Amino acid sequence: MPLTTARRAKRRGPRRFTSRDLAVIGVLLGIPVLLDLALVWGPTLASIGLSFTSWDGIGDLHWVGFDNYRNLFTEYPPFWPAVRNNLLWVAFLGLVATPFGLLLAVLLDKGVRFSRFYQSTLYMPVVLSLAIVGFIAQLVFSRDQGALNAILGDKSHPVDWIGDPDLNIWMVLLAAAWRHTGYVMILYLAGLKSVDPSLKEAAAIDGASETQSFFRVVLPTLRPVNVIVGVITVIEALRAFDIVYAINHGRNGLELLSVLVTDNIIGEASRIGFGSAIAVVLLTVSLGFIVTYLVQELRGEKKG
User: Does the keyword Membrane apply (predicted)?
Assistant: First the structure.
C-alpha cells in the first residue's frame, strides 16, 4: 500500500502551491522584506542622497555635490580623531579583549573548581547596555569620587582619568573590553566543548605539547567561532556610541564617528546633509570589513 501511494505521488509530480499557500508565503516573506526596506535600506539610501545636499531639515534641498565630503576631510577638526578612535576601538577589542576572552575560555574548559561561578561572573557585564557600562566607568574613573582614585589614595593629586584626553580613551576602552571579553569567552567556551577529544589525544600521541596541540589542532577547528567573534568585534567597535555619550557626550578625546553623526543631524547644528556624509563614511568603513569577510567565506567554501 505505501509503495502504491509513493508511485502515485511520483506520477503526479511535484506538489503545486495553492493560492492559500502562496498568500501565506507572501505574508511571511513580504513583511520582513518590507520592514528591511523601510527601516534599513530606505534610510541608508536616503542618507547617501542627503550627503550631497546642504539640507538642514526645514528648508529646501540644495545640491552641493561633494562639498560635504571635502569639508569633512579638510575643514572639520573632530573627524580624523574620531576615525582614529574608531580604528583604535577595533584594534583594542580585536587584539586585547578577544585573545583575553579566548584565554579565559581555555582555562575554564580545563574544568577548574567553581567554573560555573566564574562563567556567570565574567558573563554578567554582557547583559548590561553600553550606556550602563559608561555610568559604571564614571563611578570607577571619576576624578573626585571615583573608586580607582580612592584605591590609589593620592587625594592631593587625583588623576583625572576621564577628563584627561590622553587617558580617557584608554579608560573607556577598558570598560568596553570588560563587557566584550565575557561575550567572547562564552562563544569560545561553547566552541571548545564541541572539539573532538580524539584530536587532542592524537596530537599528544604524536608528541605535541599542550600549546602546540592548541594552536595546531584545536584553534583551526574553531574557525567558525573565529569568524563569528571577528564579525561581532567589528560590529561592537563601529557601532560604539552609548558608552562615550553617557560619559561626556563623546567630547574631549572620546570622539567617535557615530557621535559626530548624532551631533550634526539631531544636535543644535542641524546639518543633516553634513551629518549624512559622516554616516556614509562610517557605512563605507563597515562595508570594507563586510566585503572582506564575505570574500574569505566564499574562498573557504570553494576550498571545501
Answer: yes
